[in-house]
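Bumping my old thread because nobody answered last time. Still need a sequence for this structure:
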C-alpha cells in the first residue's frame, strides 16, 4: 500500500507539472493542428526524450552542479530564449492550412518535428531545476537503486508523452472550430506571439 501511495503521488505531481500550458504543450497543439495527430507522435517523442535526459541528469546529481553554476545556467537560458523567439517569429509568418492535406503532410520531415520538440524542451533550464528539486522528494535510502531511478525516469517520460498527445489530439476539436470561423487567419500570429513572449519571459526571468 505504501508503494501504491508513493506512485500515485509521484504520477499526480509529474502529470500536473507536465500538463500546465507552456512552450512544449503549445508546440504539441500547433503541430497537431498543422500536421495531425499521427505526425505529432514525433513531437511527443522529442519532448519525452529531452525530458528523460534532463531527469536523468538531475537524478544523478549533475543537475545540482548545473543549477548552482550561474554562468552555465544563464548560457542555457539565453540559448533557449533565443530559440523560442526564433520559433515564434517563424510561426508568426507561417500560414496555417486547417483542411487535411495528405500530400503536404507527406513532405513534412518527421525528424524536424522531433528536433523542434527536443530543443524546446531541453533548452529550458528551469525544467532541470524542477527535476533537481523533485526527485529528492521521491528518493530515500530504501529506494537507492538503479531500477528505482530508471522507473522514475521512465514513468516521467510516459507522462510527458501522454500530456503532449492530449494537446495534439485536442487539436482536432480546434480544427473543427477553425473550419467554421476565420480563426485560422490569426492562429499563426497568436501562437507566434506566445512563443516570442515565452522567449522574452525566459530571458528576463530570475534564476
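Sorry it took so long. Here it is:
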Amino acid at each position: 500500500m505504501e508503494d501504491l501511495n508513493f506512485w500515485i503521488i509521484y504520477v499526480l505531481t509529474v502529470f500536473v507539472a507536465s500538463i500546465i500550458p507552456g512552450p512544449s504543450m503549445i508546440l504539441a497543439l500547433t503541430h497537431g493542428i498543422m500536421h495531425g495527430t499521427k505526425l505529432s507522435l514525433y513531437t511527443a517523442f522529442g519532448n519525452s526524450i529531452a525530458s528523460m535526459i534532463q531527469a536523468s541528469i538531475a537524478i544523478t546529481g549533475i543537475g545540482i552542479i548545473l543549477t548552482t553554476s550561474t554562468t552555465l545556467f544563464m548560457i542555457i537560458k539565453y540559448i533557449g530564449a533565443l530559440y523560442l523567439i526564433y520559433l515564434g517569429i517563424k510561426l508568426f509568418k507561417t500560414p496555417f492550412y486547417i483542411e487535411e492535406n495528405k500530400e503536404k503532410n507527406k513532405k513534412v520531415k518527421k525528424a524536424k518535428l522531433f528536433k523542434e520538440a527536443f530543443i524546446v524542451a531541453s533548452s529550458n533550464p528551469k525544467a532541470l531545476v524542477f527535476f533537481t528539486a523533485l526527485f529528492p522528494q521521491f528518493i530515500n535510502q530504501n529506494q537507492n537503486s538503479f531500477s528505482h531511478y530508471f522507473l522514475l525516469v521512465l514513468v516521467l517520460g510516459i507522462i510527458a508523452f501522454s500530456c503532449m498527445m492530449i494537446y495534439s489530439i485536442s487539436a482536432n476539436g480546434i480544427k473543427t472550430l477553425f473550419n467554421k470561423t476565420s480563426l485560422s487567419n490569426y492562429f499563426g500570429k497568436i501562437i507566434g506571439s506566445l512563443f516570442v513572449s515565452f522567449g522574452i519571459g525566459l530571458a528576463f526571468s530570475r534564476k
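The radius of gyration is 18 Å. Let me know if any region looks off to you.
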